[in-house]
TrEMBL record:
Descriptive protein name: Innexin
Keyword Ion transport: yes
UniProt signal peptide: none
Transmembrane segments annotated in the record for this chain: 36-54, 109-131, 187-211, 269-297
Gene name as annotated: inx
GO cellular component, one term: gap junction
Family affiliation: Belongs to the pannexin family.
Domain of life according to the entry: Eukaryota
Protein function: Structural component of the gap junctions.
PROSITE patterns per the UniProt record, alphabetical: PANNEXIN
């Protein structure tokens, strides 16, 4: 039952939170990295360390001259090996044989699989951690009391909306550094997933890049002619050589066959990771293209305001697009994910009205002037979505 307790802890990464509880400070692609992928990596780490699922991770047999527990421990902490498999008959298992002149394929990765999976889980969480600290609870601060569908007193609702519009108007053109942090973390997500693909390829001795395609090709081959690529990368039967001194002081060599039961899990985990990383890298790349269009093309921002948020006033959209910068738009974009469409439309209507009536955005007010308008950011800094 211990494994279910650990797995339930990992489930916290993917739990659904109500908007009234936590502020949304990113998009779905971003959350695929630090919520779903990190949870997958940590869950896989738990599975490969749960000996009660598969028994002992390695079990070796020899001629009996070496105690079984000594042989198992030695072969686990050093390495095992296989020989190139030519498909010839008369071989007990793929990768076994007596021709020691051939180049051996060393297998020592299995010692590091749990650590590697845990480390990758941390890597996928780091961009979110950077963005969360960069963001400093700004979205939660300005949307406080307006998230979700909870009914509030009309006067209080109007007051909160006016304070929000005042904040957006007073801090116009002051959020470009804020947006830089967000787009930097989006690029970091993409670099992270692509880098992890090559990291796994190096970890598995150059076998990961083509692992998924090899498995698909294998499933379509003739039963009598195919060689399972999963067994080549994650062999279930390997060899191990143990040396010790004999009674006369000469060195004796003992060959052992080792069953790597852990690889029955490893092969399934890594084939899933291959497909998941490919999907995640494609989606992350498209997210970067989308963000680049938002940054470089004002028409994209105009389309988003008109269609996604149903904000259709031509004059209002034109005022928002022409008189706001990328940082302002990102803040408005994130704000739209935290409050209802009706409230969001009212906020944009009022903001665009002020932009149309005002010739130039006012300079930022002093700290004393801002104090009664904006709540203390320290109150919200640690309450954004994790």
């Amino acid at each position: 039952m211990a494994i279910f307790g650990l797995a339930s802890a990992v489930a916290g990464f993917v739990k659904v939170r109500y908007l009234i509880d936590k502020a949304v400070i990113d998009n779905m692609v971003f959350r695929m990295h630090y919520r779903i992928t990190s949870a997958i990596m940590f869950l896989a780490c738990i599975l490969v360390t749960a000996n009660n699922l598969i028994g002992d991770p390695i079990s070796c047999i020899s001629d009996g001259a070496v105690p079984a527990h000594v042989l198992n421990t030695y072969c686990w902490i050093t390495y095992t090996f296989t020989l190139p498999y030519s498909g010839a008959k008369g071989v007990a298992h793929p990768g076994l044989g007596n021709d020691y002149d051939e180049e051996k394929k060393i297998h020592s990765y299995y010692q590091w699989v749990p650590f590697m999976l845990f480390f990758q889980g941390l890597l996928f969480y780091i961009p979110h951690w950077i963005w969360k600290n960069w963001e400093e609870g700004k979205v939660r601060m300005i949307s406080d009391g307006m998230r979700g569908t909870t009914a509030i007193i009309a006067d209080d609702k109007t007051n909160r909306q006016n304070r929000l519009v005042q904040y957006l108007y007073d801090t116009l053109h002051m959020h470009n550094t804020y947006s830089f942090g967000y787009f930097f973390c989006e690029v970091l997500n993409f670099v992270n997933v692509v880098g992890n693909i090559f990291f796994l390829d190096a970890f598995l001795g150059g076998a990961f890049l083509s692992y998924g395609t090899d498995v698909v090709r294998f499933s379509n081959m003739n039963q009598e002619q195919r060689t399972d690529p999963m067994i080549e990368v994650f062999p279930r039967i390997t060899k191990c050589t143990f040396h010790k001194y004999g009674a006369s002081g000469t060195i004796q060599k003992h060959d052992a066959l080792c069953v790597l039961a852990l690889n029955i899990l490893n092969e399934k985990i890594f084939i899933f990771l291959w497909f998941w990383f490919i999907i995640l890298s494609v989606v992350s790349g498209l997210a970067i293209v989308y963000s680049a269009a938002v940054i470089l093309l004002p028409s994209t921002r105009e389309t988003i305001l008109k269609r996604r948020f149903r904000f259709g006033s031509p004059n209002g959209v034109e005022a928002l697009v022409k008189r706001t910068q990328v940082g302002d738009f990102l803040l408005l974009h994130l704000l739209g994910q935290n409050i209802s469409l009706r409230v969001y439309g009212e906020v944009l209507d009022e903001l665009s009205r002020r932009l149309i009536l005002g010739c130039n955005p006012p300079s930022a007010p002093s700290t004393l002037e801002m104090a009664p308008i904006y709540p203390d950011i320290d109150k919200f800094a640690k309450e954004t979505e994790t």
